[in-house]
Amino acid sequence: MTEIVWRFDVEGNNFELAGHASQQTKSRLKQIGVNNDIIRKVIIAMYEGEINMVIHANGGVATVTVQPNLITVVLADTGKGIENVELAMKEGYSTATTEIRELGFGAGMGLPNMKKYSDDMAIDTTVGEGTTITMKFKI
Amino acid sequence: MTLREVANITQAQIISGQELLDTEVISACGSDMMSDVLAHVKNQSVLVTGLINPQVVRTALMMDMKCICFVRGKIPDEKVIEIASENNIVIMATNITMFEACGKLFSRGLRGGD
Fold first, then answer.
1. % chain A with pLDDT above 90
2. Residue A99: left (phi > 0), alpha (psi -120 to 50), or beta?
């Protein structure tokens, strides 16, 4: 295997479709025979990130790159950016609306879960311009 | 226990996946907070929840769960049932509360999983 790249458009504020990119990624990773424990970590982190893009950032693009020893998930949006990354990383801190909470999200676990399940996570964000989150998972 | 027994124990009605009721499960998780399900669930096959939006099925799907048991008389809409059916997840619904459903299942042998 050399390198496989999958790209998904994530539609903002479409809660019915939210999670579709992660679901697709999950079945494709299964198809190419990635270990289930690795898939689980990738998918939990990616799904939380995808939900964040749908909720907070008016959507964006998710790119998954699979290399022999590494899976990289890049979630890029042109949303409002994260004002205080340190605060956003705190478990329980959330700016989500009641509507989001009714979906079972918005408990302030998104970014903490993403950090917990990835081997490395980098957040590049500018208020008013957008956020790019890069997560790496060792295979 | 089988999913058929899960339905009997929780007095649930099968909404979809009738043909999958012989599937064996050993663990379950009860939550209305999908982030918590994602954070803490490992190898649990039954999700007991009172939330009925599509994200519940997607979360169950991400976690390889076999069954969602909706509590408190909640019935999901067609879209939710469709996603579940496409992915072989059994949907059942009961009038009892989450506390009762979890208690009954626990007392009959289902556990929280590892």
1. 75
2. alpha
Q: What is the pTM of this model?
A: 0.86
Report which DSSP code applies to B3.
H
CB B105 within 8 A of CB B48: yes
Task: Identify all chain A residues contacting B38, using CB atoms and an 8 Å cutoff.
Answer: 44, 47-48, 109, 113
**CA pair distance B104, B114, nearest whole angstrom:** 20
Which of B70, B62, B95 lies closest to A19 in space, CA to CA?
B62
> Phi, psi at residue A96, to the nearest 5°?
-70, 150
Report the CATH architecture of B3-107. Answer: 3-Layer(aba) Sandwich (3.40)
User: What residues contact B84, with CB distance under 8 A and at least 6 apart?
Assistant: B16, B17, B57, B60, B68, B90, B91
**pLDDT the model gives residue A1:** 61
Mean pLDDT of A5-13: 95
A115 touches chain B (CB under 8 A): no
CB contact under 8 A, B35 and A110: yes
Domain residue limits, chain A: 4-138
CATH of domain A4-138: 3.30.565.10
Measured distance CA(A21)–CA(B49) in Å, rounded: 24
Structure token digits, residue B75? 């019935």
